[in-house]
Design brief:
The protein contains 8 helices and 5 strands; from the N terminus they run αβαβαβααααββα. It is an alpha/beta fold. Helix content is about 45%, strand content about 15%. The N and C termini lie far apart (about 65 Å). The longest helix has 14 residues. It folds into 2 domains: about 130 residues, Beta-carbonic Anhydrase, Chain A; about 35 residues, no CATH class. It has a 5-stranded mixed β-sheet, sandwiched between helices.
Length: about 200
């Protein structure tokens, strides 16, 4: 049995038995938060449980390392849509210890591309088109650096409202313990002070 046939068989029973009913909600996050986090499998269930999140509470955006590589990429677009169209009032960037993006070796990864059948011609075409693999595949020295990088891109984005706090955390991927590394409220306090004048 393939993974797809297993999924389809389970899904059919899931729907027939109406097990979906306990997950019914709408598209607007009840806790009014968006979370940018890593795609790491250890966080799949751990992160929502450790944050006391249920279905419908938050918009969760995942990618490798919780990294925004460009201000106009799909992850940033998702954050902006969540804020401007879905009622999100705060953003959490959550990296984690033991992340595979820590000190990612782009040269080694390109060799894995080749081992999986990606030709030198394709790689050369990408390089000649301006796609620099060392930049495209860049990781970070520490999860804290990665989170701080993403926070700065979000905060400085021209379409980001200045009053939306952007917080930074590192999670222990075994225990779910959170470490606050950037308090988004502190970052917007000077703005609130200016508004009071």
């Amino acid at each position: 049995m393939t993974i797809v046939s297993e999924i389809l068989e389970f899904n059919e029973q899931f729907v027939e038995q109406k097990r979906y009913e306990k997950y019914l909600t709408d598209k607007f996050p009840d806790k009014k938060v968006a979370i940018l986090t890593c795609m790491d499998t250890r966080l799949f269930e751990l992160l929502p449980k450790a944050l006391n999140l249920r279905n419908g509470d938050a918009k969760i955006i995942k990618n490798a390392g919780a990294i925004l590589t460009q201000p106009f990429g799909s992850a940033m677009r998702s954050i902006l849509i969540a804020i401007h169209d879905m009622g999100v009032k705060e953003v959490l960037v959550i990296g984690h210890h033991g992340c595979g993006m820590t000190q990612l070796d782009s040269v080694s990864l390109v060799e894995k591309f080749k081992a999986n059948g990606i030709s030198d011609e394709v790689l050369d075409t990408l390089e000649n088109s301006g796609i620099r693999m060392e930049r495209f595949l860049r990781g970070f020295d520490s999860p804290e650096d990665g989170v701080k990088h993403s926070i700065q891109i979000i905060r400085k984005h021209p379409l980001m409202p200045s009053f939306v706090p952007v917080h930074g955390f590192i999670m222990h991927s075994d225990t779910g313990k959170l470490e606050l590394i950037d308090d988004g409220y502190a970052a917007i306090e000077p703005l609130r002070g200016d508004e009071a004048k």
